[in-house]
Amino acid sequence: MCSVCGCHGEVTFDAGPKPAEKPLPFPHVLAKAPAAHNHSHGHHHDHGHHYGLGAAGVSVPGMSQARLIEVETSILAKNDALAEANRRVLRALGVLALNLVSSPGSGKTTLLCKTIQALGDAPLAVIEGDQQTSADADRIRATGARAIQINTGKGCHLDAHMVGHALDDLRPAPRSYLFIENVGNLVCPAGFDLGEDAKVAILSVTEGEDKPLKYPDMFTAARLAILNKCDLAPHCDADLDAYEANLRRVNPAIEILRVSARTGQGMAQWLEWLRARLAEKA
Amino acid sequence: MHEMSLAEGIRSIVLDQARAHGFTAVTVLRLEIGRFAGVEKPALEFAFDVVMRGSPAEGARLEMIDLPGQALCYDCRVTVQIDDRLAPCPLCGGGRLLPEGGDEMRIRDMEVV
Description:
Largest interface: A-B, 43 and 40 residues
Helix content of chain A: 25-40%
Oligomer: heterodimer
Order of helices and strands of chain B: HEHEEEEE
Number of domains of chain B: 1
Strand order of the largest sheet of chain B: 2-1-6
Order of helices and strands of chain A: EEHEHEHEHEEHHEHEH
Radius of gyration of chain B: 17 Å
CATH topology of chain B: hypothetical protein PF0899 fold
Largest sheet of chain B: 3 strands, mixed
Structural class of chain B: alpha+beta
Strand content of chain B: 25-35%
Shape of chain B: elongated
CATH class of chain B: Alpha Beta
CATH architecture of chain A: 3-Layer(aba) Sandwich
CATH topology of chain A: Rossmann fold
């Protein structure tokens, strides 16, 4: 069991080379957190649970057993509280945190590598979420950026708790960018707040114009949609206006950028967007 | 979608409540689920049965109450009620709607002993 917060699960972290120790107010490092945080424990029962024979399994003479407890608590309350803790830390540091969400294969990692190169000396860090392999974190580290890989095992999304631990290891610099590349999945990551400033949905033009209508929650939750691989549009009869119309159909407030990470089309506008959001955090 | 995670969230709240209120078993657990919450009810029922084993809510009856979907119509500038995520505005027939409510996933109450 995790000695910091008592968490359990099969999530693994690959922090890569350990950064220099700096005392910063990360929520999970109030206690000492190890550089690599591995979980390989579970909760096992080799016994039954006995509640007796009545409705309650116990009986107290003279007392009614049943009572009603008003709970009125969100099922995701724990995640939301941890996300808020992450958000406080990131706000205190002036870090712009973006949660990059998309289906698998939309070009998130390529876009991220090109973005890191284009941002030059700007301080930044990356959290990579995938079910398996550290391939994406390796690609990010090859650009010289700091990255931590979270492997969710069977999990279909990152949650605020995983990101809190990753922040302990990464310790992003003040006034830096933090890119969180979520598990490629257009469904589940929409519901889990990580403490980010905004979700950025990446949708490649080979996926089909109807994707925003089929998976509306993700695009409703996103502030910005990046239509990626625009250089391929003529080759696959993609109707970029239809993509935009469908995005606005599910989210009238969404901002949209047409980009090709490969050719560099639209990258200037994306960088401008990033710099404006970071300036807002100062 | 992530019904196992939701069930684990429920289990964690049940354990907290059991400590706070000193009960040993939950007989009924009532959830409020918004229309747009994206919860697959049969999947959540299945996950609930599995995840609650060994907790005070093992064997509890799970009841799910639907909450309506609400969206802001960008043309009418009012909040309207819609049943379907892609339904048009019932007032103007337009499609520029931003969901405002209906993504709730809450435990309303529990009957305990």
